Every structure is written in C-alpha cells, then in structure tokens.
Amino acid sequence: MGRNELINTTRAILAKAGFDVSAALAMRGICFDVVARLDQKVLIIKVLSNIDALSKDNAEEMKALAEALSAVPIVIGERSSSGALEPGIVYSRFNISIVSNETLADLLLEDAPPFIFAAPGGLYVRMDSELLKAVREERGISLGALAETAGVSRRTIQMYEAGMGAMIDAALRIEEYLGLPVIDPIDPFTFRSEDRALEPREVPSLESYALQQLSAMGFSVRPVTKSPFEAVARDGQSMMLTGLSPDDEKVVQRAMVASDISNIMGRFSVIIVEKKHDRDNIDSTAVVSHQELEKMEEPSELTDLVASRGTKK
User: Fold this and answer.
1) Exposed site from 53, 87, 240, 291, fewest CB < 10 Å?
2) Residue 276: predicted pLDDT
C-alpha cells in the first residue's frame, strides 16, 4: 500500500470514529501528516510505510509539538525491517506509540483495544499490579507459589506487582491460576510529557522580533520547528498557533494549513508578516503586520484582533 493510501485509510478510520480530521499536509519538512480531535483528545499523527524511517529528530519535534498543544503524538505504520506490523500489538520508537491501521480500527471502531506491546526481548503485556498483589495477599498465595505457577522467579512476581511488563505466557498462567482477568489493555493514546530543554537555534530576524514581542506582551511562547507554524503562544485564556512569513508567496499556503489545524483544535491561528498585507485574513487565519504588533501592549489586544479577523470569510 502506498503512503498516500495509508494516510487516507488512517483519516477514514478516525473520521468514522467521530474525530474531526485535518486534511493531509502537503508541505515538505513537516514532522506530522494529520491532526485529529475528538472532544479533549488531540492527536498529532505521522504515517509511515516503514516505521524505521522515523528519525530521532522528527520524533523529538513531534513530542515537543504535542506538549505545546496538550496533544498525543502517534505513528501509524505498515511494516518495519522485521516484517509487517502485527494487529493488536503496540510498538514504540523514541517513546512514541506506533500501531497499524488495523489495530487503530479495532480500537476505535470495534472497541477492541490491543493487549500486547513490543519491547526489546519480545512481546509483553501489562498486568493490573495493584489487583494482582491484592488478590494474592487476600487469598494467602505466597510469592513462591505464584512464581512456580507462572514459571518465573519470586523476584519477577514482585516486579510484576510493582508494574513491570510480563511475558505473555507467564501472564496467562497467572490469570488462569487466579481465575480472573489481570491483564490490562494498552492505550496507545497515552503520552507522558518529558522535561526537555529547548535546543537553542538560530532564528530569522522576523521570527526573533515577533516571538520576543509576543513574550513581552505576556504570552507564554513555545517555539516549534518542522511545523506549519513557528510557535504556540498562550496567555491565561487562549492559545494561538503563530506563523511568521516575510515571503508573500508562502503566506497563503501556510495560512490555509494553519487554518485547517486551528479549526480542528478549536484554536486561533495568526500569521505575522513583515509589511501590511492586502488581506486581513486567509481562511480563518488572521494576518497581522509588524507595525500592528508593535503597537500592542496587552495579550487581549492581539487575541481580540485575531478573533475578529479569523471569523471573516
């Protein structure tokens, strides 16, 4: 299956499951292909025929963007160098969950979540560690007795009860012995934010000025790269996707993409240009010039302007 077909399949599954789904991005150098939202769940999605093509740099940008947008990064793939991705298994690269479209469809459309995750050394499952320990102690089952049943050591049972993943055969033996389900489903839509220092990077004069101006006005500004926008700006009440462009030829393309993404997320988008543009908005993205920005002092001045311009069609 070609990559475009894979992307369209992913988008169709998400849409059928009730997600609002963006168009597939057609811009080079972008770290994701699709944005999808259902209620408060926002997904930043990369679709790859071969998941080995996911680079560390791209993964880090996906995670940084997901943190800025309170979203979840996820990769949809078809195969790796080891072969086709198996249905019902959650893979991982650089702490980003990876599933096949078949697994995605089972989870979202059939309410059949995956129970197995791949990790170095093989395939594993997660057990309800609190339930496992509580039932074992309530029934007076010793660590040794449960370990003998599962075919593992006493120390391993203690590690299961502390939350460590278990080999599938051992977990199934424990479930059969206890007579109750202790294997938990895997949720590929979980993402643990990482405290990473932002890498210093050289920025063009327009971007540097605009981001400094936004910060001086009271916005919390999170620069992002490999994205249709350069930063995510927040104040106490709103969040904006902020793009910057000194090149008029790129304004329309970038603004249209930003509009699609911001509409999916229920956020504002603004593109800041060096000189006053002949349009105040492109689709739902407000266009604001340097001169307008430098006259503003409060965040509300910008958010009100962006809101008024972004509603024009």
Assistant:
1) 291
2) 74
C-alpha–C-alpha distance, residues 62 and 227, integer Å: 9
Q: How far is Cα 31 from Cα 227, in angstroms, rounded to an integer? A: 6
Strand order in the sheet with 268-273: 220-223, 231-234, 239-245, 268-273, 285-289, 281-282
Which two tokens mark 200?
A: 């210093």
* pLDDT computed for residue 248 by the predictor: 60
The pLDDT, as a whole number, for residue 247 is 56
pLDDT of residue 283: 87
Q: What is the pLDDT of residue 44?
A: 95
Q: DSSP per residue over the chain, as a string?
A: --HHHHHHHHHHHHHHTT-EEPPPP--TT-S-SEEEEETTEEEEEEEEEEGGG--HHHHHHHHHHHHHHT-EEEEEEEEETTEEPPTTEEEEETTEEEE-HHHHHHHHHS-----EEEETTEEEEEE-HHHHHHHHHHTT--HHHHHHHHTS-HHHHHHHHTT--EEHHHHHHHHHHHTS--EEPP-TT-------PPPP----HHHHHHHHHHHHHT-EEEE--SSSSSEEEE-SS-EEEEEEES-HHHHHHHHHHHHHHHHHHT-EEEEEESS--S-SEETTEEEEEHHHHHT--SHHHHHHHHHHHHT--
